[in-house]
Structures are given as C-alpha cells and as structure tokens.
Design a protein that fits this description.
Layout lengths: L55 E4 L8 H10 L1 E3 L3 H4 L1 H10 L7 E4 L13 H4 L8 E4 L9 H6 L3 E3 L2 H21 L1 H8 L13 H11 L11 E5 L3 H10 L7 E5 L6 H7 L1 E3 L3 H7 L2 E4 L13 H5 L5 E5 L8 H9 L3 E6 L10 H8 L15 E3 L8 H19 L20
Parallel strand pairs: 1-2, 1-3, 3-4, 4-5, 6-7, 6-9, 7-8, 9-10, 10-11, 11-12
Helix pairs in contact: 6-9, 6-15, 7-8
C-alpha cells in the first residue's frame, strides 16, 4: 500500500463534536486542513527596520515521512532545528538548553511517538530550562503522562496532543478487545495452535487442548448485545467506541464517566448514560474500557478498591495508559473471579509485561478438573492500538497544524492544558 501524502484524519464512524481528553474548553472536532481558533498567543515583533523574524521550531525525533506538502509550508514559515539523537539524550539535552544552543525557539515539535523522547520525563528540571519564547509543544500520541502539562501551562506553553489522529485506530482495536473479553479469543486461539513443549512435560496434548476449549468455552462466552459497556473517558476515542459498539451491529448499552459531563446532544446521539462517579459506572458495567490518557491526580485509576466495585464476572479493557492500572490488583481480581476476562494493549512497565498476566494469557485449561484461575482469558498486545499508517500520518499533520495555528495567532487545534495557561505572567 502506498504511503499517504498530506493525509487528513481518516474518515470514521460519524460522531458529534468532541473534546480531547482534558479539562480544557471543548472545541469542535476540527479538520486537519483548517484551524479552530481557541486562543491567541502573540509573538514579540522584530525591531523597527529589521527583517521579520522566522520563529524557531525545535524538531525532536525522526524527519517527516508522510506529509511533505504540509512540511514545505511549515519549514517556509519557521526555522526548523532538529537536534541529533545524541543531543536528545537527557544529560546532553539539559546541557544544550543551559547553553541556549538552539536560541530562543518558539515551539517544540515531536511528530513521532517512537522517537524524540530520549530526554525522558518533561518535568520541572527540563521545563524550567526552556526559554520564555516557547509558546507551544505539539506531540504525537494521545497520552501525556510523560509531560507535566500543568507546569507547561503555567510557563505559558500550550501543550497539544494528537489523540484526534489516533481515535479511529484505537477505537477499532478496542472493539476487537471488547469482543475478545466476551468470547475468550485468547483461549480459543492458543488452544487451536497449542504445541506441547515435550511429550513428557506437557499436561495437555494438542488434541486435548483443542477439544477442551471447544467443550468449555461455550459455557463462559456471551454475545455483547444488550450488555452495558462502561467507558472511562468520553473524548474522541471514547465516543468513537460508543458509536461502534452501541450501533445496531453490536447493540451494547453505553454508559460513561468523565471529569466533565458531555453536552446533551452528544449523549443523545450516542445513547450514552452519564455516571458522575467512577464507582457508579463500575457497579453498572458488564465490560469496562479505560480510554482516558491521564488521571486527574496522576495516580492509577484501576486500583484494588476500584476493582472491588466491579460487578462480579465483569470484563476489563485498557487502551489508555499502563500506568493507570495496578496490574497485580488486576491479576488478583482475575484469579478471584471478580473479573471473567481482560484485554490490555498498554502495560505499566513496558516493554516488560506483568508475568502473572502473561501466565493467564498463555496457560490453558486442563481436561480434568476445574480450569486454572483466569487461564486463557487475558488478551495482551504490544501497545498496538493506534499503530496504523493513517494514525502516524495524522500525528505529523496535526502536530504541524497545532504549531502553525499557535505561532500564526490562529490558535491551537487540540490543546489539553488551556486551564493552566499563563500568558505574560497572567492567568
């Protein structure tokens, strides 16, 4: 398949206007070919008689790959400086900021999720070294737990994520994971491809693995239709999941919890019921999907106490952030039968996956006696939910559009920290 050029956000299941997951004001869902004006930031003017200044953009990570036409416009408007991989290592990056090696740059541009993060956490140490000229930080990806967006805002820097570009891909992946929790797909797939490690060490033969799953999976599998799907986070991704799973094809009943209740027209269009508390949602849902990029206090949302509020036999899906889940508490809930199945695309200690959950994903039922707790009922993937060509093209495009919007005074497209923003020292 040819790689797209100047790819806008891919067409998706029609949903109403939505907001990036934050407590910032909710702009309409934009097209990547136009900018929604939400705030205006003025740059200092050049001295009288001097040539107009081109703002400097610090490009961290790999070169542009998918959107050369937009990049041509971008690089004509701004002086783009791209530090080497060595300069992006934290110690050298800090040294460069102290030396003002890249001058008074106006924006930070990270168009790819896999590169540009070599300096690690954007905390007070890094943010405090940024020049006062920085007005916007635009990055690939939906999550932003690696950047202190509150501190960025207090320094006058708008942080923009790219969750809008990933929404379609993540929602599609979530659909597959939801179905997996109802139909126990890991068990079915592992049993069909099972190969005993040796003739003498195996508890099961290949035939026994196949026949045991065939006989037993039916008793614990269900159709999603009519069950309550509880969404933690109801931004772009949550609303697309609701549109896909609540439509006549799957017929699930939609419930959600978010920091801010969505407008009535969104709830009506998606037949979504709002729960003001997380506990209330967990007590109602047959399957819970975590699809918010951050928690309000930076702490895990799915803890032992939260898991105790789940309906017995409920299911859990995480397409958000691994750090939002206490994975050992999740394993405890699966072993105790509080949860019947789970699916995780993200993990707390990536690229390492919790070994207890790995055992649950790969261990099969014995043909004699009850199955091991949680055996074969956990789907684990490698942070793949947003990983499509269309998503990465959208990351590039949206990051450039955010920077162009802010630095040209038209406003950001997908800001997430406007509530913390200070301009010229004022709220």
């Amino acid at each position: 398949m040819a790689e797209p050029t100047n790819t806008p956000i891919p067409p998706s299941t029609p949903v109403p206007a939505s907001t990036p997951r934050s407590s910032s004001p909710a702009p309409p869902t934009p097209s990547l070919t136009s900018n929604a004006a939400t705030t205006t930031v003025s740059l200092p003017s050049a001295p009288p008689g001097a040539a107009p200044r081109r703002p400097i953009v610090l490009h961290i990570g790999d070169p542009i790959k998918y959107n050369p036409a937009t990049y041509a416009e971008f690089s004509q408007a701004f002086e783009v400086v791209r530090p080497s991989a060595e300069e992006r290592e934290r110690s050298e990056f800090i040294r460069a900021l102290k030396e003002r090696r890249w001058g008074d740059f106006s924006a930070i541009f990270r168009p790819f999720w896999g590169t540009g993060g070599e300096m690690g956490q954007w905390d007070a140490e890094l943010i405090g070294l940024l020049p006062d000229s920085v007005k916007v930080f635009a990055s690939a990806g939906a999550g932003f737990d690696w950047a202190d967006t509150k501190l960025l805002g207090e320094k006058g820097i708008i942080y923009c994520n790219s969750g809008l570009a990933a929404a379609e891909a993540v929602a599609d992946f979530a659909v597959a994971m939801i179905i997996s929790t109802f139909r126990h797909l890991p068990w079915c797939m592992t049993a069909a491809t099972f190969t005993p490690p040796s003739p003498h060490a195996a508890d099961l033969s290949a035939a026994e693995a196949f026949q045991t799953c065939h006989a037993r999976a039916t008793a614990v599998s269900h159709n999603p239709r009519g069950h309550v799907l509880g969404l933690i986070g109801f931004g772009n991704i949550g609303q697309q999941i609701a549109a896909k799973m609540g439509n006549p094809a799957f017929g699930m009943r939609i419930a959600y919890h978010d920091m801010v209740r969505k407008p009535a027209e969104i709830e009506t269009a998606l037949h979504a019921q709002y729960h003001p508390t997380l506990t209330g949602l967990l007590q109602t849902a047959d399957c819970v999907v975590l699809c918010t990029p951050a928690s309000p206090d930076g702490q895990p949302l799915i803890t032992a106490s939260a898991l105790a509020a789940f309906r017995r036999g409920a299911r859990f899906v995480n397409v958000a952030r691994g750090s939002l889940v206490d994975e050992d508490a999740l394993a405890d809930a699966l072993e105790a039968g509080v949860l019947s199945a789970a699916a995780l695309d993200v993990h707390a200690r990536e690229p390492r996956v919790n070994p207890r959950l790995v055992r649950m994903a790969t261990r099969l039922d014995s043909p004699d006696g009850p199955p091991p707790p949680g055996a074969g009922r956990v789907m684990l993937t490698c942070h793949n939910a947003g990983g499509t060509v269309e998503t990465h093209a959208g990351f590039e495009e949206l990051s450039m559009r955010n920077i162009m919007g802010v630095l040209k005074g038209e406003g950001p497209v997908t800001p997430v920290n406007l509530e913390f923003l200070r301009v010229d020292g004022k709220a």
